[in-house]
Structures are given as structure tokens and as C-alpha cells.
């Protein structure tokens, strides 16, 4: 099988490559790194703004929303070229990929102008308030309450794992607005400014250590939110929630594929010239990872072809499951192969920021720990298996 694109798509690629070559920031100007997934340095804000103004930030959108009405194949080559250069469109991925996208899909014109466009132009940053202590994978069990009182909602409750909330200007928060309705039916989505009285953000470190702080607990104590900040209709939040997750997962397989290829390159370089390079068990498992990489890419193109024909592809959850777990399996292999040496065996990180000169080094053990984030964010592996079982295999719900 030979995969290729038509002349129109390749012309689109050429235009984007020329734009990148003319507009990528000077690496000397990019030493300042993000403080979190919503703590965006000024140089990165300027680059994101330039992408928006020139129509290259979200190519599927019309020009007024930072795009050029690109079709699916054009979006695909766009992501390919970003991946080849390790260029990230935004250091506020939740803001761009989920929050602003959800507002564009479900909000009104005033909300798009007031919130979505400033987030896309990096004038504001945003975080996503979904998970709660008792509602992680089962998001429909969320208990944060919002009561409509006149022209305001009064919000009380708690969110957790809210990435970048301590640096964000706004949150897209999913709340329960009808406690009497079935749990999927009584949820709404609110835009909440983070400086609103009664909103308390408490960041905490993760396995990356005390210097890596992105997660937050967010507490709401009688927080007043204007009713005009309701996204979509009252009690229609579950549809918006699913749409938000769909935005997060859309074409995510491209990232998984590229990241797995980067990790494979590093693994092969790590083992080259060592006794492990002739170990049949190690070679067999490396071969399995290489086949995973090819399978993810081919399944991804199959999904793309289905979408182009207007079909709803079943491959999305399969790709998310395969992509995240293939990275975890490969990292586990290198960890087991190197043994104790993996604790301090420094490798160039595949978790690359764009234009970064000194990417730093991480141990294979740290890299392995980080892969667990991939099997959780965007829908856990367990949830993906349930979706595949029910929607692909047609099995009854457990």
C-alpha cells in the first residue's frame, strides 16, 4: 500500500512549510519555558498569535477564527509538518484544543468573541474543570453544584487534576444544575473567571517532582457566575462534555505515532552496541513496538479516510488505547532491559518543546512513569476498552 495525497493537499503542505520557515522564532529567544500547561511565556504567545492572524493556528476553521477552512487531508499534512519539526501550536493545549473549541462548537457569538478568540490568540489561557475526587473516569457522577439565582449561578464543589488552573485566566467547568435528573441529564457547562471571589486554586506536584507543578485542586465556595457564561443550553452539559473530549482526541493518533517513533529511535540508539542488541527476547519486543507504530499509522489513515466519506470511525478509541499503551510497553522494555542503570541513564526527552535548544535529559524510569499520564488523560485505557467492546464489537454493557 502506498499512502499519498493529491496535488491540492501537497500544495497546502508547501504553503505551510514556507510559512513555518519564515516565522519560527529564533531559538535564542525561546529560553523562557512554560510554568504549566496554562503558564505561557510571552514569546510563545506571540508565535501563537501570529499563527492565528495568518490563518495557520486552527486550519479547519474559517479565517476569522484563525484558519483557512482546510479539509481533513490538509489538516493531516499540517499535523505531519508540525510533528516533523516538534512544533507545538500552543503551550496551553487545553485552552486551544478543548476549551476554545468547545465554545466555538456550542457557544454563542458573544462567547466566541469574548472567550474563544482571546484564548486562541493567547491573550487569555484556559483550563478544563471536569474531574472530581469522586468523578474521574465516570464524569457523569460529578457533584459540583450550580444553582441559578436570578442572573447568576451559585457554584459550590471541588475539581481535581485541573491542569494549569493556577496559571489560567478562565475555566470551562462542568457542574450539576439539576440534581433530580438522571446523572447524564442534569449537567451544564460554565465559563468561570479564575479571579472570581470564592474560587480557590491549589496546585500540587506529580511524579515529575516538586519542580513540575501542573495539577490543581480547585474549590468553589459560593462562586457567583453570570448566567450569560452558560455554554449551550441548561442541562445540556453531557453533550458538550462528550464534544470536549472528542476535540481532545481528534487526530490524537498523529501525536501518538510520532512520539512512539521518537521513543523507538531513542531505544535503538540506547541498545546499539550493547549485549542487549543481540538478545532475542529484547529484539522480539522491539519488533513488536515497530509493528505497533506501523499499525497505529495505518489505522489512523483508515480513520481519516472514513471521516472524509462522512462516516463515524470506530478506530478513534482503538488508536488512543494502542498509542498510549504502546509507549508504555516500550518504556517498560527499556526499563527492564537496563535494570538499575535505567534510574540514572539520561536520554534526550521525546517530550519536546518546540525550538528548545537544551531539551534536558530524563531517565528511562522517569519516562516510563510519564507514560501513565497517556493511559489516563483523554479517557483511561479501561474506558477505551469499554467503548471498543460496546461500539466496535457490539458486546452488551457490563
Question: What does this 3D model show about the protein?
Answer:
With 398 residues, the chain is of the alpha+beta class. The protein has helices at 7-23, 42-53, 72-84, 93-106, 109-120, 237-249, 252-271, 280-308, 315-338, 364-374, 381-392; strands at 126-129, 145-149, 152-160, 170-176, 187-193, 199-206, 209-226, 230-231, 346-348, 361-363. The protein has 3 domains: 7-91, Butyryl-Coa Dehydrogenase, subunit A, domain 1, CATH 1.10.540.10; 126-237, Butyryl-CoA Dehydrogenase, subunit A, domain 2; 251-392, Butyryl-CoA Dehydrogenase, subunit A, domain 3. The chain is built from 11 helices and 10 strands. Helix 7 (252-271) runs parallel beside helix 9 (315-338), helix 8 runs antiparallel to helix 9 and helix 9 packs antiparallel against helix 11 (381-392). The longest helix has 29 residues, at 280-308. The chain is globular and about 70 Å long. Mean pLDDT is 87; it is low at 348-360.
Annotation keywords:
4-stranded antiparallel sheet; 398 residues; Butyryl-Coa Dehydrogenase, subunit A, domain 1; alpha+beta; 3 domains; Butyryl-CoA Dehydrogenase, subunit A, domain 3; Butyryl-CoA Dehydrogenase, subunit A, domain 2; globular
